[in-house]
Model the fold of this input.
Amino acid sequence: MTPPPAVRWIYAFADRPRPHEEAVRTFWAAVTGSSLSPLRGEHGEFVTFLPPGGADPSFKHQTVADGPGGAHVDLCVEDVPAFVRHARQAGAGTVFEEPGLSVLRSPAGLGFCVVPWAGERTPPPVVADERLDQVCLDVGPAAHERELAFWAALTGWPPVRTGQPEFHRLRPPLGLPVRFLVQRLDDEQPARAHLDLAALRPAEARARHEKLGARFVAEGKEWTVMRDPAGSLYCLTDRDPHVPTGGEAEAGGACGRSGC
Done:
């Protein structure tokens, strides 16, 4: 079987409604120890979080006009048309296309983008013993198996069971900054995505985030559910942020049944 075109880099996006955009950008810049790039887009709706130390960025913010927001990813590849053909064969639908950008949807309706790889190679560093390194895809029971198979086929990354039966992790090659966790929700609801941060000391991380403007929601076995200043859910997970993404042990570090 021919392997899929390689994903060379990933950007995680915090998609947030406009009334909270300034507070959200300030919060996530502080959490990740980043500075903000100049605004981009017709309405200044895009900004990149520039990590310290000259590392390559892997996190961006997008202001959305409708709905509560969430998260999505940009997959950076060497040949966008070839990867889009592969994505369609795997089951993706096209939402929008222009030169150098394709907006697609997974079978369960999760949006993602395919963009040209710009040579990014160096993942952002750990900041305050935390790292934003995971996007969790939250999928209802009926769509879960198909969605897991889609993302595994799309990326070519093997799905790995975690210590929790409702979670599968897609393990990327070493060197990529972001991986995927696929969560089977307890009940049927529209698929969504959220951000996860690995935290060496979750209790201390929670306190730091609360001082920066986040709110505590719930405590799980290996995760803490939080809301950022826009009210969007994210999780602090009990994983070692100093272990490179793709190289860590697969036990634990999931995000819980609370639907975080």
Summary: The two ends are 36 Å apart (CA to CA). The helical segments are 21-32, 80-90, 141-155, 202-212.
